[in-house]
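Structure record:
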Amino acid sequence: VIINAYELTSSGAFKTIKQDSGTTIINATIISSPSDIPVSITGGSLTINNARIVAMGANKNAVEKTGGTLILNNSTLIATGTGKSIFASSPQSVKIYGRCQANLAVDANITQQVGTLTIDPNVI
Protein backbone atom coordinates (compact mmCIF):
# COMPACT_ATOMS: atom_id res chain seq x y z
CA VAL A 1 0.00 0.00 0.00
CA ILE A 2 1.23 3.50 -0.82
CA ILE A 3 -0.48 6.39 0.94
CA ASN A 4 -0.01 9.93 -0.38
CA ALA A 5 -1.64 12.54 1.84
CA TYR A 6 -1.14 15.97 3.27
CA GLU A 7 -2.40 15.10 6.75
CA LEU A 8 -3.27 11.83 8.48
CA THR A 9 -4.86 12.12 11.93
CA SER A 10 -7.04 9.96 14.14
CA SER A 11 -10.17 11.06 15.88
CA GLY A 12 -9.94 10.53 19.61
CA ALA A 13 -7.81 7.98 21.45
CA PHE A 14 -6.67 5.95 18.45
CA LYS A 15 -3.34 5.33 16.78
CA THR A 16 -3.31 7.00 13.38
CA ILE A 17 -1.05 4.40 11.76
CA LYS A 18 -0.97 0.82 13.10
CA GLN A 19 1.20 -1.43 10.93
CA ASP A 20 0.95 -5.15 11.75
CA SER A 21 1.67 -6.89 8.42
CA GLY A 22 2.41 -6.26 4.76
CA THR A 23 4.28 -3.32 3.31
CA THR A 24 3.17 0.30 3.62
CA ILE A 25 4.85 3.44 2.29
CA ILE A 26 3.51 6.74 3.60
CA ASN A 27 4.24 10.06 1.93
CA ALA A 28 2.59 12.63 4.19
CA THR A 29 3.31 16.07 5.55
CA ILE A 30 1.70 15.50 8.98
CA ILE A 31 0.82 12.34 10.91
CA SER A 32 -0.77 13.15 14.27
CA SER A 33 -3.02 11.86 17.02
CA PRO A 34 -4.85 14.10 19.48
CA SER A 35 -4.54 11.70 22.43
CA ASP A 36 -2.70 8.51 21.41
CA ILE A 37 0.57 7.47 19.78
CA PRO A 38 0.49 8.54 16.10
CA VAL A 39 2.50 5.59 14.70
CA SER A 40 2.72 2.00 15.94
CA ILE A 41 4.44 -0.91 14.18
CA THR A 42 4.16 -4.50 15.36
CA GLY A 43 4.97 -6.30 12.09
CA GLY A 44 5.44 -5.94 8.36
CA SER A 45 7.37 -3.07 6.79
CA LEU A 46 6.56 0.62 7.24
CA THR A 47 8.36 3.44 5.42
CA ILE A 48 7.55 7.04 6.32
CA ASN A 49 8.83 9.75 3.98
CA ASN A 50 9.04 13.50 4.74
CA ALA A 51 6.48 13.47 7.56
CA ARG A 52 6.11 15.42 10.76
CA ILE A 53 4.89 12.86 13.32
CA VAL A 54 3.17 14.69 16.18
CA ALA A 55 1.87 13.26 19.46
CA MET A 56 -0.50 15.71 21.12
CA GLY A 57 -1.67 13.77 24.19
CA ALA A 58 0.06 14.07 27.56
CA ASN A 59 3.31 12.07 27.90
CA LYS A 60 2.97 10.30 24.53
CA ASN A 61 5.59 8.68 22.31
CA ALA A 62 5.67 9.76 18.68
CA VAL A 63 6.39 6.21 17.45
CA GLU A 64 6.18 2.79 19.13
CA LYS A 65 7.90 -0.27 17.66
CA THR A 66 7.51 -3.86 18.84
CA GLY A 67 8.30 -5.66 15.57
CA GLY A 68 8.62 -5.37 11.83
CA THR A 69 10.82 -3.04 9.80
CA LEU A 70 10.59 0.72 10.31
CA ILE A 71 12.26 3.13 7.89
CA LEU A 72 12.17 6.88 8.57
CA ASN A 73 13.28 9.20 5.77
CA ASN A 74 13.57 12.99 6.24
CA SER A 75 11.05 12.99 9.08
CA THR A 76 10.50 14.96 12.28
CA LEU A 77 9.21 13.30 15.46
CA ILE A 78 7.48 15.28 18.20
CA ALA A 79 6.75 13.47 21.48
CA THR A 80 5.28 15.02 24.62
CA GLY A 81 6.28 15.18 28.29
CA THR A 82 7.96 11.94 29.39
CA GLY A 83 7.33 10.27 26.00
CA LYS A 84 10.08 9.13 23.65
CA SER A 85 10.58 9.98 20.00
CA ILE A 86 10.69 6.23 19.33
CA PHE A 87 9.73 3.78 22.09
CA ALA A 88 10.31 0.02 22.26
CA SER A 89 9.62 -2.33 25.16
CA SER A 90 12.28 -4.76 23.84
CA PRO A 91 15.35 -4.33 21.60
CA GLN A 92 14.40 -3.02 18.13
CA SER A 93 16.21 -1.51 15.14
CA VAL A 94 15.09 1.48 13.08
CA LYS A 95 16.58 2.56 9.75
CA ILE A 96 17.12 6.34 9.58
CA TYR A 97 17.73 8.08 6.23
CA GLY A 98 18.15 11.72 5.27
CA ARG A 99 17.68 14.50 7.78
CA CYS A 100 15.58 13.13 10.64
CA GLN A 101 15.12 15.06 13.86
CA ALA A 102 13.17 14.86 17.10
CA ASN A 103 12.45 16.89 20.21
CA LEU A 104 12.94 14.02 22.71
CA ALA A 105 15.36 11.09 22.90
CA VAL A 106 14.75 7.61 21.55
CA ASP A 107 14.23 4.72 23.98
CA ALA A 108 17.34 2.82 25.13
CA ASN A 109 15.96 -0.32 23.39
CA ILE A 110 16.22 1.36 19.97
CA THR A 111 19.25 0.81 17.74
CA GLN A 112 19.50 3.37 14.95
CA GLN A 113 20.86 1.91 11.72
CA VAL A 114 22.27 3.68 8.64
CA GLY A 115 21.95 7.23 10.08
CA THR A 116 20.87 8.83 13.34
CA LEU A 117 17.96 10.89 14.56
CA THR A 118 19.17 14.35 15.62
CA ILE A 119 17.74 15.24 19.02
CA ASP A 120 17.04 18.92 19.56
CA PRO A 121 14.64 20.05 22.34
CA ASN A 122 13.89 23.18 20.28
CA VAL A 123 12.20 21.17 17.51
CA ILE A 124 8.50 22.05 17.59
Summary: The CA atoms of residues 34 and 119 lie 23 Å apart. The mean pLDDT is 96.
